[in-house]
Design brief:
This protein is about 20% helix and about 30% strand. It has helices at about 15-25, 35-40, 95-110; strands at about 1-5, 5-10, 45-50, 55, 60, 70-75, 80-90, 115-120, 150-155, 155-160. It contains three helices and ten strands, in the order ββααβββββαβββ. The mean pLDDT is about 90. It has one domain: Gcn5-related N-acetyltransferase (GNAT) (Aminopeptidase, 3-Layer(aba) Sandwich). With about 160 residues, the chain is of the alpha+beta class.
Length: about 160
């Protein structure tokens, strides 16, 4: 799809284990592994970044190649979408992969669901990334969430709803 700076962005889903591990390595709360296959199956679209050096061709990673970054869109595929899981392996951070994944996802929305309301929840470290792609603060509304499992914030486990 899009190759530059030693990385290629392609449309596709990670394996459940890669998804789990990449979230964890990127400092995001790792999901319960047993819930991941269904979650991935219900994606609107996902983008993966691979090191170009290991690719078989411009859009095909080698069979054992593991993505170094990812991002997904979930939702009803028309009016309401949520940008989630933008995660970059620590060894590949600060190379523009989060930006490239986000741009690829926004380009996909523009082409396939141009009337969609796209929302997201940004961690503090990523809050400056998303306005570059047209995202705005929802004030006077506020963001909320509900989750009945543990969550990791700044390396600390927070018990949610138990």
């Amino acid at each position: 799809m899009a190759s530059s700076n030693g990385y290629t962005i392609v449309e596709g889903l990670p394996t459940p284990q890669v998804y789990h591990d990449l979230r964890k390595l990127a400092g995001m709360t790792p999901p319960p592994l047993e819930a991941v296959p269904k979650a991935l199956e219900n994606s609107f679209v996902a983008m993966l970044a691979y090191e170009t050096e290991g690719m078989l061709d411009e859009s095909t990673p080698s069979p054992n190649q593991i993505p170094v970054a990812m991002g997904r869109l979930v939702g009803d595929k028309s009016l309401f979408l949520m940008l989630v899981d933008v995660a970059v392996h620590p060894e590949h951070q600060r190379r523009g992969l989060g930006k490239r994944i986000t741009k690829a996802l926004i380009d996909y929305v523009d082409a396939h669901a141009p009337l969609a309301y796209v929302s997201l929840v940004a961690e503090p470290a990523a809050q400056k990334l998303y306005p570059q792609y047209g995202f705005k603060d929802v004030q006077p509304s506020i963001g909320m969430y509900r989750m009945r499992r543990d969550r990791i914030v700044g390396g600390e486990v927070i018990n949610e709803g138990r």
